[in-house]
Fold:
Amino acid sequence: MAKGECGECTVCCTLSVVKELNKEAGETCVHCISNKGCSIYNARPQDCRDFACAYLESGIDNVSLRPDKCDVMFFRKTDRIFVGVVVPDKTVSDAARGQIEAFKQQGFSVVMLKLFQRPHIENAKDHDRDEIWKEYLNSLKEHGNI
Structure:
């Protein structure tokens, strides 16, 4: 498998909201083929085309950081924030904890989300927790997510 490929990972097919399909977070997309990918990939909705997790964006070839392996789907939200969404019925793996620490060392705070639970913020050294929370909420408002 080349760098930055989904491989067998279909985590975003469950965790992501897809407005065009009226798909909520936590629902597996009707077009998802488990461990294979999207059955309408070439005609997938714009929400899906616009999304790339941090694993894909980085082009890293460490499969242990792929969302289906580390049980967390990370994505960049703002210039200072990454979001980590934990796969339902899973816990944050050691590989994901290492990624959180790497993000923090690079100057990013990480907003950790688990469906139907209160968010948790892992702050970078020089970030104020309240400011990060406000920035995160503003980014949600800007994109019509709240």
Notes: The chain has six helices and six strands. The first strand starts at residue 32 and ends at 33.
